[in-house]
Backbone:
């Protein structure tokens, strides 16, 4: 059985100060039925050397913060835990959302033996050895094993295949954790035999609860450290929905603070080397920065736009909000001058949902640069707003008879569709014909600029309008 300390956790980060840095803090020997650092695994001298995030792992499902959609009454994980039945789960979510926590809690509350394997450091040999041991435990003592595979997406196909017999025959209760989309990173046979649970980044209130619990709990800082409100808000922003990051930063700040002194913003900045960005997501800074961001893109200043992007990301702004603004801007201020701008903005928004921060900062930056250097045109928004303005004024005359639906005999008797000219039968696919109601016939809402790709639409649209109005003839194909 292995420690529940994540494989990506740097050893020695929380070394014993008395050791003078000569020896890394030793990990405690695992306790049967409970991963070290899991529920109840942080007591004693050995537990004191564990990272705060490990010591503060919940001891039961009711202590888990966030993920209410997974832990409420009647949810699949509650059913599986309460019935103590063999299970197979894939937990998918960003770092620090509680994947390892849920696995250890499930093992504890169901009295199963808990084994953690890291796909980063372990291979098929370790997997097979643990499965063999689990089979013996099940056969001789009737004790089930929870086999938790962290970063399961890092196992290749052959390595994931090694898990299938154990999952298929229920020799183990498999729980795989991944930050990558499992539909792409986990083999179909394993995924089809597992219940997929999606974890969400923790909200701000959830992070505050995690932080305050760590400050007060004896397993954590035990009331020895105070955190000023402004520092708490900065810590919540820095965490970005990641509880592990919040606790890691909090512990670092507690070590930097002078004895008896509270942790303020300055202490937190020194501890994590991250300056506090003045940014209130519910106040003026939120609106001022996003306004400057959009106006910088509109003004084609890519450098200024990237500054404001970085400022929002660093302050913990929701990246989905940024992506939505880029999508709007792509049509409002670039439009047909560069029709690919909208594609780029939508792709960036999808990337935000698919990979999340910090990686999605690259996708957002690419979209910002594309939109900033693209030729600009507001002809699209001007066109639709003028059309809306006419409709709101009551200019909504009847649809011309030749354009009305004529699929039934009654409509045909009323003259619906009579005289309609099918455009594809005419040269160039354009024919003289009235499409708009009489009271707006001849109105020109869309007026192309001479910028970028839109320049060619000026000439094309001019020829089309001339044909529609009977003042010119279309060219032969």
Residues:
């Amino acid at each position: 059985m292995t420690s529940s300390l994540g494989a990506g956790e740097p050893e020695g980060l929380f070394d014993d100060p008395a050791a003078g840095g000569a020896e890394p803090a030793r990990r405690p020997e695992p306790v049967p039925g409970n991963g070290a650092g899991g529920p109840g695994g942080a007591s004693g001298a050995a537990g004191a050397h564990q990272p705060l995030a490990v010591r503060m792992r919940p001891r039961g499902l009711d202590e888990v913060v966030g993920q209410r959609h997974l832990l409420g009454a009647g949810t699949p994980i509650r059913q599986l835990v309460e019935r103590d039945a063999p299970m197979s789960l894939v937990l998918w979510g960003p770092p620090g959302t509680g994947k390892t926590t849920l696995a250890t809690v499930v093992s504890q509350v169901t009295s199963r033996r808990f084994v953690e394997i890291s796909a980063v450091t372990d291979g098929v040999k370790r997997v097979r050895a643990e499965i063999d041991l689990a089979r013996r435990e099940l056969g001789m003592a009737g004790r089930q094993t929870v086999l938790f595979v962290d970063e399961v997406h890092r196992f290749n196909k052959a390595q994931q295949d090694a898990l299938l017999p154990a999952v298929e025959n229920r020799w183990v209760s498999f729980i795989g954790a991944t930050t990558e989309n499992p539909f792409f990173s986990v083999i179909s046979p394993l995924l089809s035999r597992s219940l997929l649970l999606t974890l969400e980044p923790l909200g701000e209130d959830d992070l505050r609860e995690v932080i305050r619990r760590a400050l007060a709990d004896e397993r954590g800082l035990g009331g020895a450290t105070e955190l000023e409100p402004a520092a708490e808000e900065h810590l919540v922003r820095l965490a970005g929905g990641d509880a592990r990051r919040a606790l890691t930063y909090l512990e670092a700040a507690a070590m930097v603070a002078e004895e008896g002194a509270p942790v303020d913003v300055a202490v937190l900045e020194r501890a994590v080397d991250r300056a506090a960005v003045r940014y209130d997501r519910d106040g003026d800074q939120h609106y001022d920065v996003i306004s400057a961001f959009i106006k910088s893109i509109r003004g084609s200043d890519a450098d200024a736009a990237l500054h404001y992007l970085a400022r929002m990301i660093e302050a913990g702004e929701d990246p989905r909000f940024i992506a939505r603004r880029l999508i709007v801007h792509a049509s409002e201020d670039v439009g047909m001058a560069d029709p690919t701008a909208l594609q780029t903005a939508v792709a960036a928004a999808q990337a935000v949902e698919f990979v999340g921060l910090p990686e999605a900062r690259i996708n957002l930056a690419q979209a910002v640069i594309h939109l900033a250097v693209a030729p600009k045109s507001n002809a699209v928004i001007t066109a639709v707003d003028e059309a809306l303005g006419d409709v709101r004024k009551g200019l909504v005359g009847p649809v011309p008879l030749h354009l009305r639906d004529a699929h039934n005999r009654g409509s045909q008797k009323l003259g619906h569709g009579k005289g309609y000219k099918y455009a594809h039968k005419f040269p160039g696919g354009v024919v003289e014909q009235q499409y708009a109601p009489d009271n707006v016939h001849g109105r020109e809402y869309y007026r192309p600029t001479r910028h970028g790709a839109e320049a060619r639409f000026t000439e094309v649209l001019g020829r089309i309008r001339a044909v529609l109005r009977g003042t010119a003839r279309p060219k032969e194909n």
Remarks:
- Residues 1-46 have pLDDT under 50 and may be disordered.
- The longest strand covers residues 113-118.
